[in-house]
Structures are given as C-alpha cells and as structure tokens.
Design a protein that fits this description.
By secondary structure, the protein is mainly beta. Helix content is 11%, strand content 36%. The chain contains one helix and five strands, in the order αβββββ.
C-alpha cells in the first residue's frame, strides 16, 4: 500500500556497540543496607570499585595474580 513502509535494517552504530565485550562485574551484597548490586571493573582494570546504592559506602576489590574465582561477595 502507498505510504506504508517497514524498515528491517539496523543502525550500524547500535550494532557495533552491542558487539563489544560485556563489562566485567562481581556481585556484592551490602550487609549494611541489605542490598545486592553489581560492581564493575575500573578503567585501569586493577580493581572492582563501587558503592552501596543506599548509604554510598564504598567497596574496592583488587584484581591480582593468585586471586579468587568467586563472583559474589558480602561487604560491611
């Protein structure tokens, strides 16, 4: 029909962004406020850094040789 058009192409910029590797994270249970959240690796890839979403208490988990393979932690 005239005036109807279905575009099934994707935006190249969106496709490129999706193909990037997902950001690394660990799960943190903040006991201080009984909240769970993800903490992402910093730009230097030396540590996972984040804050409790309620009280903003900071957590830092360093990345190093001989570390742990654990993906979930409890903080404060």
């Amino acid at each position: 029909m005239a005036g109807e058009h279905l575009d099934l192409t994707s935006d190249a910029q969106q496709t490129a962004a999706r193909s990037e590797a997902p950001r690394r994270f660990v799960g943190i249970h903040f006991a201080c406020c009984d909240v769970y959240t993800r903490v992402y690796v910093n730009r230097e890839e030396t540590a996972y850094v984040g804050r409790c979403p309620r009280c903003t208490r900071q957590v830092l988990i360093r990345i190093g040789h001989g570390g742990t393979k654990a993906r979930f932690f409890t903080a404060g």
